[in-house]
Each structure stands twice: as structure tokens, then as C-alpha cells.
Write a structure and sequence with these properties.
Radius of gyration: 27 Å
Number of strands: 5
Oligomer: single chain
Strand order of the largest sheet: 1-2-3
Number of domains: 1
Structural class: alpha+beta
Helix content: 40-55%
Largest sheet: 3 strands, antiparallel
Distance between the termini: 75 Å
Shape: rod-shaped
């Protein structure tokens, strides 16, 4: 049964209503996706900032513990740490001089370092690939 001329405006209004509801629902879905991505990026940012702060403070022990406990934090980081010897076997009781092996996230061995070296040399001015200069 075809709608009468009197019913056509009502049908058009129903179509408009559905169209608006549809775009609102699509917008909400996209917003949910963006918020989820933003939340993930904020977690990454937070993990990287914690790594930077701990490097600046010379706290490789905190970084190592965080990477051991939180797999996501380890995956986000651009480096990995391994104790060269267990703390009980170390030649010193001073935690500043316990040796760590530093690896890039690719698995490439970079250096042997300790907390003291990190605290002394992490701070500075770093030019970035986009031309910005950051101070740590």
C-alpha cells in the first residue's frame, strides 16, 4: 500500500530522524575508538616518561623491576636491561655500581652501565629528528 500525500511528510520526518540517529551513533563509535587510542597513547607516554625520569635519577633498578613486572611497559620501552651478575654475587654492596647490560629493543647489545653512569650522563640537551631540542 502506497503512502498518501498526507503521510509522505511523516515518512520523510522519520527518515530524517533515523539519519540523525545514525550519524550520532557513528560519531559516538568513532569517539569511542579515538578515546581508546588516546588512552593507549597516554599509557605509552607515561611509561616512556617514567623511563626518562628513572634514567635521569640513575635508577636502573626501578626500570628493570618495572620491565620485569609490567610486560606492556617493557614492550613500550626503547631499551631493555639485564643484570650482569645477581646482586648477591656483585663485587660491591653499593647499588650505584651494580653492572647492567643495556640492550636496544631490537635485542642489540649496546653497553654495560650502572646507576652511577646513568645518573651522571642522562641529563643534557638532545636534538630530535624533527628539529626540536629537548632538555632532560
Amino acid at each position: 500500500m502506497k503512502p498518501t500525500e498526507k503521510e509522505k511528510p511523516l515518512i520523510r520526518e522519520a527518515d530524517k530522524k533515523q539519519a540523525v540517529k545514525h550519524i550520532v551513533a557513528l560519531t559516538l563509535e568513532k569517539l569511542l575508538l579515538v578515546e581508546s587510542e588516546l588512552s593507549e597513547k597516554q599509557k605509552e607516554r607515561s611509561a616512556l616518561k617514567r623511563d626518562l625520569n628513572d634514567l635521569k635519577e640513575g635508577r636502573l633498578d626501578r626500570i628493570k623491576e618495572r620491565h620485569d613486572v609490567d610486560v606492556q611497559s617493557k614492550e613500550i620501552s626503547v631499551f631493555a636491561l639485564e643484570l650482569k651478575v645477581s646482586i648477591g654475587e656483585a663485587k660491591t654492596n653499593n647499588l650505584w655500581y651494580i653492572p647492567y647490560i643495556l640492550y636496544l629493543s631490537t635485542g642489540e647489545k649496546l653497553s654495560e652501565i650502572n646507576n652511577s653512569v646513568t645518573k651522571t650522563h642522562a641529563a643534557g640537551t638532545y636534538p630530535l629528528s624533527n628539529g626540536d631540542v629537548k632538555h632532560v
